[in-house]
Structure formats: C-alpha cells, structure tokens
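request received
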Amino acid sequence: MLEIHKYYKMLKDENIILSHNGALDSEVIDLLLDLTDKKLTKLKIRRGVRKKIFNILVECLQNTLHYIKEFDEDIPIVHSPFLIVIKKENSFIISTGNFVTEDRAEFLKTKLSEINTLSQEDLQKHYIQALDKKTLPTEGGAGLGLVDIVRRSKHRVLFDFQEIITSGDRLPNDNTSDVGVMEDKETYLLFNLQIEVAR
Amino acid sequence: MENISIQGTSKTPNVNFDVSSGILEISGRSIPENSYQFYEPLLSWLDKYASQPQGTTELTFKLDYFNTSSSMYILGILKKLEKLYLAGHKAEVKWYYDIDDEDMLQTGEDLKQIVKLPIDMVELDAEEDED
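response:
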C-alpha cells in the first residue's frame, strides 16, 4: 500500500501525464500515443500542441523501436525503454530513456550536439537537405527523426548518458527473476533525451 | 491498370488512386514503422500511371499525422508527379493543413521548395475532433 501511495504522490506532484517502462513494440506504441492524446484532450490542450506532442512521441518511440530491434531479446535491458510525459506550467516535457551501446552513445552525442547548435532557420535548411536525399530508406527515417524532433519542438534538446551497466548487473525494475541478468559483456549507457514543447 | 483503394489504419493512411479520373488522394495518419512496405506499391503504381496519364492529375494530401520516414516517401510521390508535370502534363497538388497545425503547414512549404509543382496550400478549420 505504502508503495502505491508514494508512487501516486510522485505522479501527482510531478504532474506526470504518462509514464511507461517496459516492453516496446508496435502495439505498445499505438497504446501510448492514444493514451497521451486522450489525456491531453481531457486537459483541453490546444489541438496544435497535441499534434506536436503526438508527432514527437512517434519519432522518439519509433527511433527507439528501430534501435532495439537490432538486439536479441535476451538482452532485456535494451528492450526495456522508459517514457515520461510531464506537464509544466508553460510547457510539456517529453523525456525518454533507453540503454545504448557506447558506439551508439558517441553517435547520438555528436548528432545531437550538432543539431543543438543550429538556429531554427539552419535546422529548416538541414531538414530539407536530408529529406531530399536521392535514395529512399527501406527502414526508419535515416537520421531525419532527430532533426524533425528539434524542428517541431523549437527548443534545444537536453540529453545525457549515465548509469553505466555492464555484464552481470540487474535491470533496475527487476527483482523477481533472472531475466534481468545480462549475459553478454557489452557496456550499456542509459541515454536520456528531454524535449520541451511550449503549451 | 487497376485503381488503388486502401482503407486507413491507426498507422497507415487511406489511399484512393483512380486511374480513370486522374484523382489521387492520401488522407489520415501516416506513421508506419516500415514506410517502404506501405509506399513502394504506390510508387510503382505511379510509374505505370505515368505511361498513360489523364489530361490532368490531381493529387491531394489530407494528413493528420506523418512520421519522417513517410515524409520521404511523400516527397517520392511528388517527384513522380513532378516528372509528369515537367514532361508537359497537367498536374495539381492540394496540401491540406489544420489551421492549428503549424508543422503540417511548414512541411507543405518545405515540399514546395523541393519540387517544381503547383502545390496549393489549403487551410482546414477543423473543429470536429474536439471531443
């Protein structure tokens, strides 16, 4: 009982619209999008803002899904991403978390730092150039997703990498079985991406 | 050559490509995880259509949401039509956007910059989904 009260208080105090940690697949994405949109509609949030949040969530969740698909199911830590949508006084915060390899972390760091230096105008140019590539992707958006997220949110994104987890560590939300024990030797970093959308 | 008539889902749009009238429409949500799978048949259809197009081809986009991988294919469709247009056939594009949806308007403007086609931006004042 106590735990639920604590959890409830946190959700309320932090104005959390939605929180998810666990499996992610096509159906779960549908559900998360639908739930968020319903909650925002209930809060009478403008349609334009709702659409913006919806689209940013689509990019975030599908980016994550494409990434985790590359890993075996028996690396549970990778298959257990996080999502929180928080209502602030003048904006919404979309915060995502997922475990990535060191290589991926380097790639994201470089890409996001580059995007964050661009003005809205340059971002626009960058987007058009990337969109107008000669070849069409057979899967995913070929790195255009991150540019699109920043372009839509009109804010610089915040990001960090921490909580290095190596072989033998358990998943933070697992204390019941051995599924959280990592079999491989790879090091994973928790990648947190935070996007702000004005209300 | 057959028409294309696809019913939309929570992730894919309604598609109506009518060969006899030259009226092509895409509407609804376009957020598939695999855009290639969905859009490739549409691009192939357009290649065939381009060999015997109608006097005027009218393409309409009335989208609520789209992801970035769809936007690349939307551009792919527009480029097929651009080819037709530059070869001397008549073509018109209508890009609908919700009055509240600045991103949909922006994407329409972006596409206009990339392709040499008459793209008409049509504002929608949709109050109906305020449930």
